Amino acid sequence: MVVVLLSLGMTKAEIRKQAILQRKGLSDAQVAAYSRALLEHFAALDFSSVRTVHVFLPIAEKKEPDTFLFIDWLASQHPGIRIIVPKADFETALMQHYVYAGREGLLKNAYNILEPAKGELHTGEVDMVLVPMLAFDLQGYRAGYGKGFYDRFLARLGAQRIGLSFFGPVERIDDVNTYDVKLDCCITPERVYYF
Ligand SMILES: Nc1nc2c(c(=O)[nH]1)N(C=O)[C@@H](CNc1ccc(C(=O)N[C@@H](CCC(=O)O)C(=O)O)cc1)CN2
Ligand SMILES: Nc1ncnc2c1ncn2[C@@H]1O[C@H](COP(=O)(O)OP(=O)(O)OP(=O)(O)O)[C@@H](O)[C@H]1O
């Protein structure tokens, strides 16, 4: 008898490749429409005890969700909430966090990530973090570009971790490691997955 062991899972490297291709296939109009759909789900969350939201700034060239929609919505609907944006140091894979002060002060780094050039550092608590990714799985694990920025950042925080993805989950990420931090939920254009 021949026994075939099928794994439904994928490695992060495989998932990254697939997700990058999937993203590349999106038109600008699709990115805009999907981003609006993500915002609709986000807007339905409970913000009653949220004072600080950490928002990644999109790499437009990589067709990431347009998080400026989220920033504009928060500023108009919850003006009391403080918006924090990151600045990544690629030598240490650590991020510094700044109080968002408008688009004027943002510059693109070598990876096309917009980031604050200067401003007020935020070193206090963060209640909610929007997490970028290439893909996530049914357990709430994610794969990003592979430098561990968000794993390092989220490890020391008690914040709500909210993933944003244009695509639904993969069944399972096989090579999850002890540093990988699970999401609390992941928003896709279709629905919100809770873990
Ligand atoms: N908007 C945004 N900011 C973010 C992240 C993200 O995913 N999205 N990151 C999430 O952790 C961190 C940045 N992570 C990155 C890690 C590696 C590369 C990189 O090596 N880029 C190469 C090749 C990428 C590719 O394979 O396509 C390049 O641009 O040449 C870029 C970003 C922190 N800030
Ligand atoms: N808290 C940590 N301390 C030390 N190393 C870490 C930590 N978190 C992650 N790493 C290391 O960083 C590397 C990248 O991790 P991983 O492949 O999970 O990245 P990713 O989650 O896809 O990337 P990102 O978080 O930047 O989107 C791994 O070698 C991992 O061991």
TrEMBL record:
Record's keyword annotation contains Zinc: no
Binding site for ATP: 12-16, 142-150
Catalysis performed (reactions): (6S)-5-formyl-5,6,7,8-tetrahydrofolate + ATP = (6R)-5,10-methenyltetrahydrofolate + ADP + phosphate
InterPro entries: FTHF_cligase, FTHF_cligase-like_sf, NagB/RpiA_transferase-like
Keyword set, alphabetical order: ATP-binding, Ligase, Magnesium, Metal-binding, Nucleotide-binding
Family annotation (Pfam families): 5-FTHF_cyc-lig
Enzyme class (EC, first level): ligase
Presence of keyword Ligase: yes
SUPFAM superfamilies documented for this protein: NagB/RpiA/CoA transferase-like (SSF100950)
EC number: 6.3.3.2
GO biological processes: folic acid-containing compound biosynthetic process; tetrahydrofolate interconversion
Residues annotated to bind substrate: 57, 64
Cofactor(s) the record lists: Mg(2+)
Recorded GO MF terms: 5-formyltetrahydrofolate cyclo-ligase activity; ATP binding; metal ion binding
Similarity comment text for this entry: Belongs to the 5-formyltetrahydrofolate cyclo-ligase family.
NCBIfam families listed in its UniProt record: MTHFS_bact
Protein name: 5-formyltetrahydrofolate cyclo-ligase
